[in-house]
Automatic annotation (TrEMBL), chains A, B, C, D, E, F, G, H:
<keyword id="KW-0413">Isomerase</keyword>
<comment type="similarity">
    <text>Belongs to the AIR carboxylase family. Class I subfamily.</text>
</comment>
<feature type="domain" description="PurE">
    <location>
        <begin position="13"/>
        <end position="164"/>
    </location>
</feature>
<dbReference type="InterPro" id="IPR033747">
    <property type="entry name" value="PurE_ClassI"/>
</dbReference>
<feature type="binding site">
    <location>
        <position position="21"/>
    </location>
    <ligand>
        <name>substrate</name>
    </ligand>
</feature>
<dbReference type="InterPro" id="IPR000031">
    <property type="entry name" value="PurE_dom"/>
</dbReference>
<dbReference type="GO" id="GO:0006189">
    <property type="term" value="P:'de novo' IMP biosynthetic process"/>
</dbReference>
<keyword id="KW-0658">Purine biosynthesis</keyword>
<comment type="function">
    <text>Catalyzes the conversion of N5-carboxyaminoimidazole ribonucleotide (N5-CAIR) to 4-carboxy-5-aminoimidazole ribonucleotide (CAIR).</text>
</comment>
<protein>
    <recommendedName>
        <fullName>N5-carboxyaminoimidazole ribonucleotide mutase</fullName>
        <ecNumber>5.4.99.18</ecNumber>
    </recommendedName>
</protein>
<dbReference type="InterPro" id="IPR024694">
    <property type="entry name" value="PurE_prokaryotes"/>
</dbReference>
<dbReference type="Pfam" id="PF00731">
    <property type="entry name" value="AIRC"/>
</dbReference>
<feature type="binding site">
    <location>
        <position position="24"/>
    </location>
    <ligand>
        <name>substrate</name>
    </ligand>
</feature>
<dbReference type="GO" id="GO:0034023">
    <property type="term" value="F:5-(carboxyamino)imidazole ribonucleotide mutase activity"/>
</dbReference>
<comment type="pathway">
    <text>Purine metabolism; IMP biosynthesis via de novo pathway; 5-amino-1-(5-phospho-D-ribosyl)imidazole-4-carboxylate from 5-amino-1-(5-phospho-D-ribosyl)imidazole (N5-CAIR route): step 2/2.</text>
</comment>
<feature type="binding site">
    <location>
        <position position="51"/>
    </location>
    <ligand>
        <name>substrate</name>
    </ligand>
</feature>
Length: 175, 175, 175, 175, 175, 175, 175, 175
C-alpha cells in the first residue's frame, strides 16, 4: 500500500490547488480533473495574493506542516500568487498562467516564470493545457517515489498515445 | 510651516523606498536623488518579496502607523514587490520596473502594471526615468496639500523647461 | 470635517476625469464608480489631445487654480493625453491605457507609461481594472492627509478581502 | 526659378526639424543631411512636448504662417511630439521614432504611428534610416510641384541604384 | 482656380489608391472617403505585389508621367506593396498596414514602416484609422501649395474639433 | 512521362503530410488541396511529437526508404513536430505554424522557424496561407526537375495573376 | 538513512542534466552548482534533440529504469529537447530556456513552456536564474519525501533570506 | 554522373544567392559555406529590392531560363527581396531574415515568413543559423533526385551527429 492510498483513505490533501479568483475556475478545473483521475487527494481554495495577502501568508507558512507535497497556483495578469507562495514555503509550487483579458496571458506567463534565482516556480502553458499539465507534473513528481502511481501514469500516457494514434484526418483521394 | 518642514525636522521618513535587491540601486538611486532635491524625508531598504516575504509583510502592515505617505518600490523580472506591498497597505505604492537581463524590463513592467481591480500600483517607465518619475509623482501628490512644496515643484519644472529651451542642436547652414 | 466633506458640500471637483473620446467611456466609467463610492467630488470631460489640443492646454493650465488635486486621463492607441496633461500641470496625472482595436492596448500602455524623466504619469493596467485602480490610487493619495478617507479606504479593502474570502470554487470529491 | 530657389535665396525655412531633446541629434542629423543635400531650406529646434509644451503649441500654431511646408519630428519612448504637432497644425508632420534605451524604439514607434483617425503622422523606420527617409519623403512631396526638385530626386535615386549595383560580395570559387 | 479644381474638371487622378487584394477594401475605403470629401481626383486599383508583380512595376514606372502626386498603398501580412511601389517611383508613397488574421497587423506594420534608408514609405496606423489618415496626410501635403485646399483642410479639422467638443460622457452626480 | 506521372499511377505517396493532432486539420487541409490540384501523390497522418514520439521516430527514419520527397508538418504551440522530423530524416521538411489558442501562433512560429544551424525546417506563414504555401513550395521544388510540373505551376500562377487582375474594388465617383 | 544518502553512497545519479549543446554550459552550470550544494547525485550530458535524436530517444526511454527521478533539460531557440524528453519518459522534466542570440530567449521560453495538454515541462526563467531554479525545484520535489533534504532546503532558504536582509543600499542623508 | 557533377563541370550556377546589401554578407556567407561544402555551383549577387527593383525583376524573370533551381535570398528590416523574388519566378525561394539594428530581425522574420497564400517563401531562422539552414534545405531538396548528393547529405549529418556526441560539458564530482 503506497502513501497515496493511505492518504486517500485518510482524506488528507497532498496537493493544494489555489487560484487568485473564482473566475480562474474554468482554467483551473483542468488541474482538478487530472488529480481526480489519478486519485490524488487535494484541496481547492481561492487565495488572492492581492486581496487576501495575510491568508496567503498563512497558507504558505502552514503548507509543510499540513502535509502538502505540492501547490498548484493559478493566476492572471500581474500574477503574483505562484511566486509569493514559492517564497513562503519549501513545498514545490507549480504555476499556471491564466489568460488575461487584453494580453491573453502573456503578462501572466512572464509574471510567473521570470522568478529570480533562489525561489523557483515551475511554470506551464497559458490556460487549460497549463492547468492540466501542472497537475500531471505533480503526479510525475510523486510517481518517482510511488511505484503504483508510476504505473498509473504510464498507463495514462499509453492511453493518450493510443488516442492520438486513433486520430484520423479526413480521407483524401490519392491520385 | 508645512508638514514637510516639520517632518524634516523630526527626521521621520514620509516616503519609503524599497527594492528587491541591492543590485537595483543603480536604477533606484534616481528616485532618491529627486526626493533629496525636494527635501522629502525618506528611508531606503532592501525588501525582497521572494527572499524576505515576512519582512515584506511586516513592512507593509506597519507602513500606515509608521507615518509613510508613499512607498516607492522597484523590482525586476517577475516583479512582485510593488504589487504585494500594495496588497498589504493602503499607503499608495509607486512601482518602478527595473530592467531585467534578457527581457529588458518588459517582464518587470507587465508584472507591475497589470494589477487586478482593487489593488493599484502606480507604474512608471522602465529604468532610470521611471525611478525619478515615481519620486516626482510622489512629490506632486504631496504638493496637492502643501503649498510650499507645490512652489518647489513648479520651480523645478520651470528649471526643467529652461534647460530644455537651452538645448541647441549642432548649427547648420541655411542654404 | 475633512476637506473632502467641505469640497463635497461646495460641489467643487477635486478630481478631473478626462478621456480622449466618448468611446472611452465604457472603460473610464470604472474610475467614476470608484470616486462615487468614496464620495470624491469629480468632473467628467472629453478632452481630446489630438482634436482639441488647445482645450487640453487650457484644461491643464487651469488645473491647479481650479483646485484639482488629481487628473485621471484615459486614452488609447497613440495615447498622448495623459502625458501631455502631465506636461501642462503639476497636478498629478493618473493614466489609464484604453484597449485599442488591433493591438489590445499594448500601444496605449507604452504611449502612457514610457514617459521621459521629469514628467511622470502614474500608469495602471490596460482597461477596466486600470480605470478603477487609477481612481483607487487617487483615493489612497488623498487618504494620506485625510483620516476619514483613510478609514473609508481601509473599510473598502476589508470588504474586498471578505468578498475574495467568500469565493468558493466548485465542490469536488476528496477521495 | 522654382519656389525652392526663391525660398533658398530668402533663407526662409520650408521644413522645420524638431526633436524632443538634444540627445536625439545623432538620429535626427540624418534628416538634416538629406535636406542639405537637396538644398531645402530648413530650421532645427529642440521642442520638447513634455518639458516645453507651451513652446510646442506656439511652434505648431505658427507653422502655417511661418511658411513651413513640412515638419519632421523625432522623439523616443512615450513619443508625443509628432502627434501633438500634427494636432496643432495642418502642416504635414513626418515622425521619426528615436530608439529608446530599453525597448529599442518599439515604444517610440507605436506612440507615433498609432494615431487616431483625423490627425495623421507619417511615420518612418526606427532610428537613422527613419530620419533620413522622413526627409526624403518630404523632398518627394515637394517634388510633386517642383520639377527641378523632382529631377534632383530622380538623380539621387539613380546614384543610389548605381551604388547598390556596385556592391560586390566577397568572391567565391565556382566549382 | 487651383490645380485641384482644374484636375477635377479634367478628371485626371492625382492620387492612386492601390491595395494588395479586394479583401483590403473594408479598410481602404476609409482613404477613399477622405479623398472624396476633399474632392481630390483619385483612382482605385488592386495591385498585388505578389500576384501581379509586373503590373506593379508598370504602375510604379508610369506613376510620374501619369501625373500621380501621391500613392496610397494598403497591404497586410508580409506587406510588400507600399515599399516596392516606393522603390519604383519618386512619387511619394503612403502606406496603410492592413490587419492580418493572426498577428492583427503587427506584421503588416513592420513590413511597411521598417524601410531601409533611401526608400521611404510614410506609414500610418494599423487599419481604418491608418487608411483615413494616409489620405488626410496626402491632403495636407497637397494643401501646402494649394491655398483653397488648405482652407478646406482647416475647416475639416475645425469640424472635427467641434465634434470632439460636443462629445458628452454620461452624466454623473456631483456630490 | 515524368516521375510524378509514374508515381501517380503507382499511387506511391511522394509527400507526407503530418500534423500533431486531428484538430490541426482545418489548417492543414489547405496543403492537401494544393497537392491534389497538382496531382502530387501524398499521404496524410496524425503524428504527434509529444504523444507518439516513437511513431514519429519511425516515420522519420523510414521516410527516405519509403520514397517520400518532402514532408509537410503542421503543429501549434510548442510545435516540435517539424523540427524533430527534420532531425530524423534528410527528406526536406516544410513546417506550418498552426495558430494557438492564446498566442495566435507566435509560439508555433518561433518553435518551428528558429531551428539551430544544421537541421533546417522551411517555415511558412501562420495558418491557412502557410499550409497552402508549404505545399506550393514543395511543388516548386519538385518542378525544378519535372518540366511538366513546372508548366502546371506556371499555369497555376498565371491563373492566380489573372484572378488578382480581375479583382475590382467598389466603384467610386471621380470628381 | 534516506534514499538520497543511499544513492549518494552508491553514486547512482538521481538527476540527469542534459543540454542541447556544450555552448549551453554557461547557463546550465548554475543548475549543477545547486545540485552539488545539496549533494544530489547527478549526471551531465549533451543530448541534442536535433543532431542526436536517436540518442535522445534512448536517453528518454531508459530514464525510468536507470533510476532518474528528474531530468533538467536546457535548450535555446527552437528548444525541443525538454518537450521531447517529456514525451519519452514519465520522469518529470524541468526545462531551462537558454538565451538565444537574437531573440534573447523569448523563442526558447515559448518553445519550452507552451506544451500541449498531456505532456508537461516544468519551465523556469530564461538564463542563469532559470537553471538554478530548475535544480532548486527538483530539490524541493525530492524534499517532499526526504526529511533530511527538506531540512537542508529550509536552511538554504534561511541563508538566502539572511543574505537579502544583509543587503544595504548606499547611505543617504535624511534631511 | 549526376546533374550536379555535370553542372559543376559546366560552371553553371544552380543556386542563386542574393542579398539586399553587401552588409548582409556576414550572415549570408554561412549559406555560401554550405553550398561550397556540398559542391553546389552557385552565384552571388547583391540585388536590392528597394534600390534596384528593375534588376530584381530581371533576375527573377530570367531565373528559370538561366537554370537556377533555387534562390536563397537574405534581407533585413522591411525585407521584401525574398517575397518579391518568389512573386517573380516559379523557382523556389528560400528566405533568410537578416538581423536588423533595433528590432534584431523580428521585422525581417515577419516580413519574409508571413507571405500570402499563393506565393511561398521558405523561411529560416534569424541570422547565421538561418543562412546555413537555407542552403542545407536547398541541398536536401536537390538530394531528393540525386542519390550522390543524398549520400553526401547523410554523411554530413552523421558527422554533425558525431560532433554533437563528442561534446563534453565540464566534469563534475558525483557525490
Amino acid at each position: 500500500m503506497t502513501i497515496f492510498t493511505e492518504a486517500s483513505a485518510a482524506g488528507t490533501p497532498l496537493v493544494g490547488i489555489i487560484m487568485g479568483s473564482a473566475s480562474d475556475w474554468d482554467i483551473m478545473k483542468n488541474a482538478v480533473a487530472v488529480l481526480e483521475e489519478f486519485g490524488i487527494p487535494h484541496e481547492l481554495n481561492v487565495v488572492s495574493a492581492h486581496r487576501m495577502p495575510h491568508d496567503m501568508v498563512e497558507y504558505g507558512t502552514q503548507a509543510v506542516d499540513r502535509g502538502l507535497r505540492a501547490i498548484i497556483a493559478g493566476a492572471g495578469g500581474a500574477a503574483h500568487l505562484p511566486g509569493m507562495m514559492a517564497a513562503l514555503t519549501p513545498v514545490p509550487v507549480f504555476g499556471v498562467p491564466v489568460p488575461s483579458k487584453y494580453l491573453r496571458g502573456e503578462d501572466s506567463l512572464l509574471s510567473i516564470v521570470q522568478m529570480p534565482k533562489g525561489v523557483p516556480v515551475a511554470t506551464f502553458a497559458i490556460g487549460e493545457a497549463g492547468a492540466a499539465n501542472a497537475a500531471l507534473h505533480v503526479v510525475a513528481c510523486m510517481a518517482t517515489t510511488d511505484s503504483e502511481l508510476l504505473k498509473k501514469l504510464i498507463a495514462y500516457r499509453c492511453r493518450q498515445t493510443e488516442a492520438a494514434r486513433a486520430m484520423v484526418v479526413p480521407p483524401h483521394v490519392v491520385m
